Amino acid sequence: MLLIESLGPADTPATEKLILDFDARTKSRLRTKLASGEEVGLFLPRGTILRGGDKLQAKDGRIVEVIAAPEALVEARCASAFELARTAYHLGNRHVAVQVGEGALRIQQDHVLEHMLEGLGAELLHIVAAFEPEAGAYAPGHHHSERGATEAKIHVMGGSA
């Protein structure tokens, strides 16, 4: 099994790909497979959140690129900026990971949250896309030089890393 314990240099071309959904990209310890089918064990520093495009350094020297897997999402659009901000507030109040887009918010599909969003007047669209939610505002996390030294990690409620 290929062992990965560290982030790799962002400017080095990858020879392997690791396709993970958002939930898997929040785990510091994970047994999974590369796109080629080879088994891999991730043992990353606690609190590491992987983003699509991140590079990992395998123990054997290979560079592995993280690919954000398409997953079932809900895109919420609102009639006004005020309604969109109100919708974002209510999602944040529930500690939900949210991807902010141009005039829209994306969350992982959840029928309870979808019902709440409809009650707030949001128009919902079910899509399949890579999920790259916003980072938490207060939690420091790993960063890459091209992202800036102050990048925060995503605050994920529940589950084990």
UniProtKB/TrEMBL annotation:
Signal peptide: none annotated. It holds the Pfam family UreE_N. InterPro entries: UreE, UreE_C_dom, UreE_N, UreE_N_sf. The keyword Chaperone applies. SMART domains: UreE_N. SUPFAM superfamilies: Urease metallochaperone UreE, C-terminal domain, Urease metallochaperone UreE, N-terminal domain. The keyword Cytoplasm applies. Residues 1-64 form the UreE urease accessory N-terminal domain. Keywords: Chaperone, Cytoplasm, Nickel. It is found in: Cytoplasm. Belongs to the UreE family. Involved in urease metallocenter assembly. Binds nickel. Probably functions as a nickel donor during metallocenter assembly. This is Urease accessory protein UreE. The gene is ureE.
